[in-house]
Write a structure and sequence with these properties.
The chain is an alpha+beta fold. Strands 4-7-2-1-11-14-13 form a 7-stranded mixed β-sheet, with no helix packed on it. Strands 8-9-10-15-12 form a 5-stranded antiparallel β-sheet, with no helix packed on it. The longest helix is centred in the C-terminal third of the chain and has 18 residues. The chain is globular, with a radius of gyration of 22 Å. The termini are far apart.
């Protein structure tokens, strides 16, 4: 039997938005805001929620789709106040068929009620998204885990503002992105509400639930908050005491901090690596040793607030704009805090890269290698080579212009190449560093 041809606006017929994650992202609309109300029960890992999604159509549509993980099921769906003709949830997509076609530029107000047991999304990079802890939960969604806990347009280019309300047992604290708006206690359950007004990619949205104590660590130059298990307080204070100094150094080098505050969460479980979210970083209990063992990672995650969260790669092939920059920030922190200069760090990293396989193109590494450690180190070496090429003054003025002009926006590598060209970087500098496998020599 011959299958019918897809309709012109069938979301399943759309070409991939990003070949690195061909199943992610959707066409036909642009989300401007998510309002998420979720209720989570820790013991049973059960979640019920309602997502209010405000969007505008970018073409005539009679069907729209959202990325939505398989651990949750949609119950009621409404579009502009009415029920759609039908909706179907399969293969990680919630496809909604409208009763009438909607023209380009029209407002969409979509309300989706859903429930289930959230599970991480499995992929080439492991499991990402909603994750149960021994006593609580966390969300670590890079690159495609946002759909594990709410229906969304899950691509870094699809930024929107967020309001996140989390209801859970009152013995737990819930932390999410943005400014804390307030909490409401009803019987044995508490609702915590946060407002994230600055545009945010869905993969950077997070919820952290645990038996945490919250406190303010610093007010200057930026308000820094912590949410930690009480028994880790002393170790945390030793390990994270330099954060205000890091913030001072980075605001001087990179420009104003992009958000109202910065929050660090320490889960009471071990985590293989720390996780950045917009306005937040999440560490494991293993990162609290009391010996300052992870100072480099603390600087790395803080730097992502500028490079990755505020200025975000529009496509995953350009992830070196996140990780190369955050890795170089580690070296800049060392240089500005009495440690090794960035130049020495770069020379050492370059020597290490020269001993490894020359098989990565950091300007287009492919999905399998986009989190490869060589991309991080070679991206940082590229920046140090650029600094040597155009000089310190031009380099740091250029970085501040980069974070200012593209604040809360999305970028591609060509944008950075064009900017560097205005500061004296020759066009031929980039080909060997970004688009060839063979590692070039560092400029003398």
């Amino acid at each position: 039997m011959k299958r019918p041809a897809p309709r012109f606006d069938d979301p399943r017929a759309d070409p991939p938005i990003d070949p690195y994650l061909p199943a992610n992202g959707n066409r036909g609309y642009r989300v401007s805001r998510y309002e998420l109300d979720i209720d989570y029960r820790v013991a049973s890992n059960s979640l019920s929620g309602t997502a209010h999604i405000t969007a505008t159509t970018t073409r005539p549509v009679s069907r729209i789709a959202f990325d939505f993980g398989q651990g949750l099921d949609a119950g009621k769906v409404r579009v502009n106040g009415t029920r759609p003709a039908k909706f179907a949830h399969r293969d990680g997509k919630l496809v909604i068929t409208l009763r009438d076609r909607i023209d380009t530029g029209a407002a969409l107000a979509v309300t989706i009620s859903y429930a289930g047991n959230p599970t991480p999304i499995d992929g080439p990079w492991g499991e990402v998204g909603w994750e149960e802890l021994t006593d609580g939960a966390l969300v670590a969604s890079q690159p495609n885990g946002a759909a594990s806990w709410f229906p969304c347009d899950d691509h870094p280019s699809a930024k929107a503002s967020f309001r996140i309300s989390v209801t859970t047992e009152s013995s737990y604290t819930a932390v999410a992105n943005g400014v804390f708006v307030g909490k409401r206690v009803r019987a044995s359950r508490t609702t915590w509400t946060y407002e994230q007004p600055e545009p945010m990619s869905p993969y950077l949205a997070t919820v952290q639930i645990g038996r945490y104590e919250q406190r303010q660590l610093s007010r200057s130059p930026v308000r820094i908050m912590a949410a930690t298990p009480p028994h880790l307080r002393t170790l945390f204070d030793r390990d994270f005491r330099k954060q205000p100094d890091m913030m001072r150094v980075f605001t001087r080098l990179f420009g104003p901090y992009p958000y109202d505050r910065y929050t660090v969460v320490v889960a009471d479980d071990t985590l293989e690596i720390p996780i950045e979210a917009q306005g937040m970083s999440i560490f494991g209990s293993n990162h609290c040793t009391g010996r300052g063992s992870y100072e480099r990672l603390i600087a790395h995650e803080l730097a992502h607030q500028w490079f990755g969260n505020s200025v975000t790669a529009r496509r995953w092939r350009d992830i070196w704009l996140h990780e190369g920059f955050a890795c170089y920030a580690e070296w800049l922190w060392s240089e500005n805090s009495g440690g090794q200069p960035a130049r020495e760090k770069a020379n050492r990293a370059h020597a290490g890269l020269a001993r490894e396989s020359q098989s990565i193109v950091i300007g287009d590494p492919g999905p399998e290698l986009m989190f490869d450690d060589r991309l991080y180190k070679r991206g940082a070496c590229t920046l140090d080579a650029l600094r040597r090429t155009i000089g310190d003054r031009s380099f740091f003025v250029m970085l501040r212009e980069w974070t200012d002009v593209h604040r809360y926006g999305t970028v591609v590598t060509e944008d950075f190449i064009d900017l560097a060209g205005r500061y004296g970087c020759p066009r031929g500098f980039w080909e060997p560093w970004l688009y060839r496998t063979q590692l070039p020599a560092m400029p003398s």
